[in-house]
Amino acid sequence: AVTRTFSIIKPDATRRNLTGAVTKMLEDAGLRVVASKRIHMSREQAEGFYAVHKDRPFFGELVDFMISEPVVVQVLEGEDAVKRNRDAMGATNPAEAADGTIRKEHALSIGENSVHGSDSDDNAKIEIDYFFQPEEIVG
Ligand code: CMP
Fold first, then answer.
1. What tens digit of pLDDT does each residue of 108-126 get?
2. Cα separation, 37 vs 70, whole angstroms
3. For 23-57, what is each residue's pLDDT tens digit?
4. How far is the CA of 36 from the centre of ligand 1 (A)?
5. Active-site positions, per UniProt (predicted)?
């Protein structure tokens, strides 16, 4: 089925002017950008988005990184969008990511790993709603 997922192009990628390169890899994977905006997240916004990780040892580092520079938040649409996007991203740790994936090509480390993608349809809906109003999504 055609579904939607939520993506973030992270600060390590926007900083290196890779917004277009990453978006091209998503498009080449069969995903369509149906909403996109460049934002500089507030600390509160980042802490809320990553609340599920708040007890992890890397939480502080993760939030500091995500607010260090602008990010690009996107809604992606395509056949099985969550899986399609996760396949295009590759493993969280770039050292384990397959050849040709975004993280293999561009990520710097497990933290500075260039992209975020929702891990389920339910979380995709929650994450899309966290950053976008319905009228900002134009399919
Ligand atoms: P993301 O998909 O955005 O969701 C949680 C993030 O935590 C994950 O991507 C990683 O970038 C980050 N992360 C996971 N493990 C570590 C770690 N050991 N150190 C720093 N960041 C991490």
1. 999 999 999 999 999 999 9
2. 10
3. 999 999 999 999 999 999 999 999 999 999 999 99
4. 22
5. 116
The residue assigned the tokens 């099985």 is 80
Q: Give the whole-angstrom CA distance, residue 85 versus residue 83.
A: 5
Question: Tell me: the pLDDT tens digits for 77-107?
Answer: 999 999 999 999 999 999 999 999 999 999 9
State ipTM.
0.93
Binding-site residues from annotation for ATP: 10, 58, 86, 92, 103, 113
Ligand 1 contact, 62 CB (< 6 A): yes
Does the beta carbon of 86 sit less than 6 angstroms from any atom of ligand 1? no
Strands 115-117 and 2-9: antiparallel
Q: In whole angstroms, what is the distance from residue 58 CA to residue 126 CA?
A: 22
> Using CA atoms, how far apart are residues 52 and 17, in angstroms rounded to an integer?
29
CA 113 to ligand 1 center in whole angstroms: 8
Q: What is the pLDDT at residue 26? A: 98
Token digits of residue 12: 């390590």
Distance 135 CA to ligand 1 centre (A): 30
